[in-house]
Amino acid sequence: MESANTYWADRALLEWQVELGATEAICDAPVDRYDVPAAVEKPKTAPSAAVLIDVSSEKTDAVHIATQAASAAQTLDELSAALGRFDLCDLKKGARNLVFSDGIAGARVMIVGEAPGRDEDLAGKPFVGKAGQLLDKMLAAIGLGRDRADAPVYITNVLPWRPPQNRDPKPDEIAMMRPFLMRHIELAKPELIVIVGNWSCQALLGKRGITRLRGQWTQAAGMPALPMFHPAYLLRNPEVKREAWADLLSLKARLRDG
């Protein structure tokens, strides 16, 4: 009789635990969670300030080295070579090619995209896939083109290497590549910048929210800048092409009126 009572009592306790939300047993032996231990284990010591400084300095050093390498470049060719030698960004290890630029350097308009995709990684040029083809059509609609001698554009990306599986850029990757991007803008000497996509806004404006930022002229790298939807976003959301067309007309008017 006693064993039977024990069985039903144990079962009732188990059902009570299930009702409380327990889903599995994680110990071979029962543990009394309400028992007060004779001695309380001391909390682990927090990392020292020196350790935190060391971790921070490693990230800072990468940005510092990138800044030095970018500043030393006196031409676009030298900047491209400096990027090719830069080995602190892990994206380089998984990429096929360095994606530096396309179009005509010295153009009035410089377009800054986010990062290369598969097609760009294979070709070694920015905006050559479906999104790039749409970008070319958008530019042609207002009389611009990457190969037009009379009205050229110059194109680059925040990241020169493709992120794995086309994932979003990481903050440390943007910080590491930003010195190269800023020097790229200095050497290309455009009159204005078109900032394409959220992550380009993050790199050049320090904020995201392209649906709020697009179409509003601002300043980036000391010059007029216009945030716009990324062509890839337009392919996924064709209903916003009207807003993109308004932005293109704003760009055309700015080029015409100076």
What's this, in brief?
With 258 residues, this protein is an alpha/beta fold. Helix content is 50%, strand content 10%. α2 runs parallel beside α7 and α7 crosses α8.
Give an account of the 3D structure.
- By secondary structure, the chain is α/β, with parallel strands linked by helices.
- It is 50% helix and 10% strand.
- It contains eleven helices and six strands.
- The protein has helices at residues 2-20, 49-72, 76-85, 91-94, 118-123, 130-141, 171-188, 198-205, 210-213, 231-236, 241-257, and strands at residues 102-103, 109-113, 153-157, 192-196, 218-220, 223-228.
- The protein has a six-stranded mixed β-sheet with strand order 1-3-2-4-6-5, with helices on both faces.
- β5 and β6 (223-228) form a beta hairpin.
- α2 runs parallel beside α7 and α7 (171-188) crosses α8 (198-205).
- The chain is elongated.
- The chain starts with a helix and ends with a helix.
User: Structural class of the secondary elements?
Assistant: alpha/beta
* Relative helix content: 40-55%
Report the mean per-residue pLDDT as an integer: 88
Q: How many extended strands?
A: 6
Largest sheet, described in full? Answer: 6 strands, mixed
| Fraction in beta strands | 5-15%
Give the key terms.
50% helix, 6 strands, alpha/beta, 258 residues
Protein topology:
Elements: H1 2-20, H2 49-72, H3 76-85, H4 91-94, E1 102-103, E2 109-113, H5 118-123, H6 130-141, E3 153-157, H7 171-188, E4 192-196, H8 198-205, H9 210-213, E5 218-220, E6 223-228, H10 231-236, H11 241-257
Parallel strand pairs: 2-3, 2-4, 4-6
Antiparallel strand pairs: 1-3, 5-6
